Amino acid sequence: MNSPDTVRMLALLLHNQSLRDQLRSCPATFITTQGLSEEAAQVIASLDCDQLDRQAEALLSKRRFQVAQLIPQTWHSLGSSASEQFQNYAEQTTWPETHQKHERDALRFCQYLQQQRIPGYLKSEHNWLNFHLHKHWFRIHWVTDLIIDQQRFSGIQVFSRNPSGAPLKRVFFLWRVNVVP
């Protein structure tokens, strides 16, 4: 049976390339540095690092796909840097452990993009995801990054819920924003 120490370390290894590189370069030093129990040390020492890398990439790919589905305009707006930005974000966090893990992952990725001031971040999509997850009943936002027919507009987002609690979105765009390439 795997100890909590073993499970925790495997989870860390699966989401952190730097830790996998340390394990690959010198397993004994890695095990000592991490202060693992004897049981955990035996499990970690027996790992095939190439297989661990493949598993980590498969998990990251699943996370990336799910997030891209939830924030498609932001993902598109990030362009060719989307996967790289998600990799950077994923290295700093773990996959949320809730029934809404994909939505929470997308929300935290938006927060990461916002904090890092990454070009391509869309506050309008972040607002909608935040409203949807936090079960608010009514919100109004002024935004300058509404994407309508692949054009950018300034406008107002109005979010509410119907009597059964389903989220509703209304957007009033006011003028087109000229985006400088």
TrEMBL record:
Residues 47-114 form the SCO6045-like C-terminal domain. Pfam families: SCO6045_C (PF26136). It comes from the Bacteria. InterPro entries: SCO6045-like_C. This is SCO6045-like C-terminal domain-containing protein.
